[in-house]
Each structure stands twice: as C-alpha cells, then as structure tokens.
Amino acid sequence: MVEQRVLVIWCPDWPAIAAARQARQPSTAPVVVFTANRVRACTPAARAEGVRLGQRRRDAQSHCPALVVTAEDPDRDARLFEPVVQAVEAVVPGVEVLRPGLLACAVRGPRRYFGSEESAAEKIVDVVEALDVECRVGVADSLAVAVLAARRSRIVPDGESAAFCAPLPITELSAEPAISGPERAALTDLLIRLGLTSCGSFAALPEGKVATRFGADAVIAHHLARGRSHRGVSRRAIPADLTVEQSCDPPLERVDTAAFAARALAERFHEGLAGAGLACTRLTIRATLSGGQQMHRTWRCAQPLTPAATADRVRWQLDGWLTGRRAASGDQDGGDDGFSTGGIVGLVLEPVEAIDAGRVQFGLWGSDGKDDQRAGWAFARVQGLLGPESVLTPVRSGGRGPVDRIAWVPWGDERVPPRPVDRPWPGALPAPSPTRLARSGPDGSTEAVVLLDDRNRPVELGERGLLTATPRWIERSGHRHQVQAWAGPWLLDERWWAPDRRARRARLQLLYASGPALVLVADAPTGWSIEGIYD
C-alpha cells in the first residue's frame, strides 16, 4: 500500500497558551498549567525563568515568583483552539484535529497549490502566527512520523522516515499522547533500563521478539521507530447506517445543553458501533446552523474512542462553535463565518475510520468505559426521581481555604465555579491542599488542639498576624507530641470594612511526631483547631 504523505501543525505549549488567553495575559507572560501539583505545560517566558515540566508548584514558583498559575482544563484548550483550526482550514482543506494544539492533513493538495511542501509549510506558519500563536510544521510519509517531525520543524524527504527516526531518543515514542497510548511511557522507561536509548536501537530488534516480549503496543512503537505506519492495514469497511443524527429543537445555544446533547448522541453512536463489532478511531462531527450553514470537523485518536471520549470531543467542538458564534454576534463589524445566524439545529456523528472491536484493549481492571456509562445513566435516573440537586459534582473553585476551594454543581450541568480560580486570593493556603477535611462535630466545630512553646506556654496568634512563640509541642486528644516542622501562618483579615462582621483568622501547616501533617486554623475566640489532614 502506498502511503500518503502527511503534514502536521503543532502548537507547542498549547494548554499554557490557552490558559494565558483566557486569563487575558500577554503571550510574553510566564503562565503555567498544573496537574496534580506538577507542571504540565508552561509558556516560553516561564521556561526562561527555570520552570520545567514535571516540576512541583513550589519549586516552580521559587524560580519565578510572578508565575501565573492555572489549572488543567481540556474544555478551555479545545474551545480556544477552534479559531486556529478555522484559520488553517481556510488555506488547507481536509484538516483533522488530533488533539487541541495538534492538527494534520494530507500534504498532496497544499503541495500542488503552493508549489512545494516548503512553501505550504511557510504559508501555514504565517497564517497561525498571525493569530499570535507559535507553531511548527512537519511533513513525513506517515502521520506518526510527521508528528515527530513537527516537534523538530522538519520536512522528512520521501522514503527517509527510518533514517529520521533512528537517532531520536527513545522517549520520543511516548512524548506525544496523540500517537501513543497511556502505557507507552512505561515501555520507554523499560527500554532505557535495558540499554535501548535511541529509536534506531529499538528498531533493530526483530519484530517477532518485540511482540512476544513487550506486547501489542510495543509492536506499534516498533513500527514508529522504523518510520512505518501502523494504521491502514487494520481498517474495516464501515456500514453507512452507523452514522447517527439528531435534530435539536430548540437550537443549541448554551454549552450545558450542548454537553447534554453530546452525551446522548455519543451513547447512540457507540451502541451502533458495538452492534457492528467496530471501534471508532477517526470521527467526523457535523453541525447544521439555524441559518442553513453546514460545519464539520474531523478528530483522529491514537486509541479507539469510548462513549466518554466521544462525548468529550463532541462537547469540545460544540463549545468552540458556540463560543465562535457568540463572538461573531458581538462583533460590531459583523462576520461572514455564519455563527451570527443562530444556534445549532442538527448534529451528525460519522465514523471515518474503525477497527475490529476485538482489538480494543481493556483497562487495568477490565473496564472499557461502559462502567462509567452505566454510572451516568444511574445518576440521570436518580436526578429524574429526586431532582437535579440529588447528584452533585465537585468543581474546583476560588478561595483561601480548603473548604472554599471546592464547590458543588448538579451532575450534568456546566462545571462553572462560583468564584474565579485565577484571582490572587491573598492569604490563601499554598498547595498542596490537604487530602481530607477534619470531621466536624454536631455543632459544626472541629477538633481543638493546643500549641505550646519550649517553656510550655501557649502559642497564639499575635496582633500583627505572627505567632507569639515558636511551636515545640502540640496537645491533641489529651496527648502531647513534639512538633517536627511547621509553615505559616497565613493571615486572613476578611470583612475589615465591617467591624461587627470582621473575621480575623490564620492557618498553619504543622508536622508532628507519630502523626500526619495537619492544617490548623486559629480563630481569635476559640484558639487552634484542625481544619485538614495530609494522609
């Protein structure tokens, strides 16, 4: 089979760039996206200050005190990436989204129109950078190799994919989630420990030995290390009746209603695929606007889509289209993109590429996403019986203490925090937050403790927000323990403009012998009490 050369557009650090745009920060601002208290993405300005991927939050802030801290938000990344996709699609037809920040298309058309692959790449870079977004372009004989080439801004000559991949570090096989599964990082770590540090050394192994020793995903990685494509040979003929449609009356104009429609449509879509014994790896989402305009977008995935993954992509895409419609309708000069004509009245999900469902790899505990789907049905049933407030979802919110940073919204509603997360919140307890909150008594009180100094005198909060002495002992439940370390206090002076409602408190992180680390809170009338526990 003759493979068609592929062009890939990669926007580095896209989650951080999207976070900066949502926070209305300039592209030169040091912005970082954190996941599980570690750096997931950062802007070039943050990287110039010494911030690195995987770094802990406090370490990153010690390198750059002016760091703008944001949380991971896939919805935001997809929504803000839609204008980039539209700009590229205006000059290159047939664009496919691999993930927010990564696009692909066949290179044949752009090469013939612009004269060469180099000219096509230059034109695309100019279009994207006109939006104040940095991008890199790569071209190769297959999609996976083109993704690796884009990370190095390379155009790999025809037939030289193996030579291009050979000197790359073995970690490149797991660097991009759009072309690798979640278990690929463990594979590359094992290969490094075995002394295989480059793609060329891994490609030199016999394919049969790789399959028997490392498993199915290792064979896919082995193909990539050799510059070959692992897709195409596994494609199945897709029956036309697997395309699902849904009319939207009234038209979809809100993100929360679009999310509900996406979930229902994804469930119908996967019911049809399961009946045909197929799993979708490439999906086209089509929408019809109330003015008659047609829009479509194709998403390509490294792993077969589950109902939840399909619902996510449909929700992201509809969010991007609806946000674009609102932006166009608010434009005083008007717009010709069609968004100003109304909401979405029709949705279509069409499988473009599918594989045998028997090849879908189950999760570690045997789950393929159906458990989540059944749980969602159960939640919806409970809400139908007892009301929307009967099933709640935690949402990260803004606030100074661990209790304030969690808000609850009805399951299925748009996950919008009641207080903005990106505000400064002076006096806020620094990360990480405690793993669990202290249990409150019947009257709402928490467990009281006493802090003592080295002379057995109580340690209290002074008038200037400082401790009256260094804590040496903590008395809890009638037992005394030696304090090993402490941090703080973080003073809270709330409602200072209303003397009758003024609240003056402080929080303290404390670690003592033979016990977990604690978050203590001091109130002027009640003294110290336990607010949170680090397990």
TrEMBL record:
<feature type="domain" description="Expansin-like CBD">
    <location>
        <begin position="459"/>
        <end position="535"/>
    </location>
</feature>
<comment type="function">
    <text>Poorly processive, error-prone DNA polymerase involved in untargeted mutagenesis. Copies undamaged DNA at stalled replication forks, which arise in vivo from mismatched or misaligned primer ends. These misaligned primers can be extended by PolIV. Exhibits no 3'-5' exonuclease (proofreading) activity. May be involved in translesional synthesis, in conjunction with the beta clamp from PolIII.</text>
</comment>
<dbReference type="Pfam" id="PF00817">
    <property type="entry name" value="IMS"/>
</dbReference>
<dbReference type="InterPro" id="IPR043128">
    <property type="entry name" value="Rev_trsase/Diguanyl_cyclase"/>
</dbReference>
<keyword id="KW-0227">DNA damage</keyword>
<dbReference type="InterPro" id="IPR001126">
    <property type="entry name" value="UmuC"/>
</dbReference>
<dbReference type="GO" id="GO:0006281">
    <property type="term" value="P:DNA repair"/>
</dbReference>
<comment type="similarity">
    <text>Belongs to the DNA polymerase type-Y family.</text>
</comment>
<dbReference type="InterPro" id="IPR043502">
    <property type="entry name" value="DNA/RNA_pol_sf"/>
</dbReference>
<dbReference type="InterPro" id="IPR050356">
    <property type="entry name" value="SulA_CellDiv_inhibitor"/>
</dbReference>
<dbReference type="InterPro" id="IPR007117">
    <property type="entry name" value="Expansin_CBD"/>
</dbReference>
<protein>
    <submittedName>
        <fullName>DNA polymerase Y family protein</fullName>
    </submittedName>
</protein>
<feature type="region of interest" description="Disordered">
    <location>
        <begin position="419"/>
        <end position="445"/>
    </location>
</feature>
<feature type="domain" description="UmuC">
    <location>
        <begin position="30"/>
        <end position="154"/>
    </location>
</feature>
